[in-house]
UniProtKB/TrEMBL annotation:
Transmembrane segments: none annotated. Residues 21-181 form the Ribosomal RNA adenine methylase transferase N-terminal domain. Keywords: Methyltransferase, RNA-binding, S-adenosyl-L-methionine, Transferase. Belongs to the class I-like SAM-binding methyltransferase superfamily. rRNA adenine N(6)-methyltransferase family. It comes from the Bacteria. S-adenosyl-L-methionine binds at residues 14, 16, 40, 61, 84, 100. It comes from Nonomuraea antimicrobica. This is Ribosomal RNA adenine methylase transferase N-terminal domain-containing protein.
Amino acid sequence: MSTHRPGRHELGQNFLTDRTTIDTIVDLVARTHGSITEIGTGDGALTLPLQRLGRHLTGIEIDNRRAVRLARRTNRSTTIVNADFLRYKVPTTPHVLVGNLPFHETTAMLRRILRSPGWTDAVLLVQWEVARRRAGVGGATMMTAQWWPWFEFALIGRVPAAAFRPRPSVDGGLMTITRRARPLVERPEQERYQDLVHRVFTAKGRGLSQIVAAASPEIPRQRVQGWIRKHQISPMALPKSLTAGQWSDLFRLHDECRSFAPARQTGCHR
């Protein structure tokens, strides 16, 4: 994708210029609390309005020339850092993330964000289809399902390509991610939970009844059917149709049956 200034094509920069979208992002951040970390400040389209919130703001900008220019225009509560967010050590203390993410690095940046500690809320502008999928609209992706116990994803709205300069080939999507105060699955169980989600998403079968049985043979078939009836899930539904609560309940069932051997003989009852 091209950029405002020659020679920066490799940075994949598309700058937000639409005032309505900028105001919406600032309003969403205003509803949160704590210091702000902005990913990709560019020329300050978001940075300058955000600093008017009166909170400490750290802006991360990969383009050294833009970082230097913007630093001259910010006030004392704002710090501009010339760094690549993918390698930047984010604070471990509570803060809010905000940013217009480079479309070509959206997935890598989202993975980095989800694995980073400290932040409580994120307001992100990404590709429209990515925003929809991450928020579970039309079915959740494996990435969303793997992180749902600890985060809530919400789609705010579509941002037309005309809102950026230079204009990208696709629309943007504004989304929020909020860290749950009470996780649906405890952190020490994260690796096992995410492994189960991966197995379910990649298992073969016609509908969840067969897919779950193939992905988690530890669970007796009657318990799989009981879980499906409990949540009023169609046996022919697919993993993408499950909700955060259904995934966490499936993990609890999987863990319960995994603890009892042989599961099919015991029925994995406590």
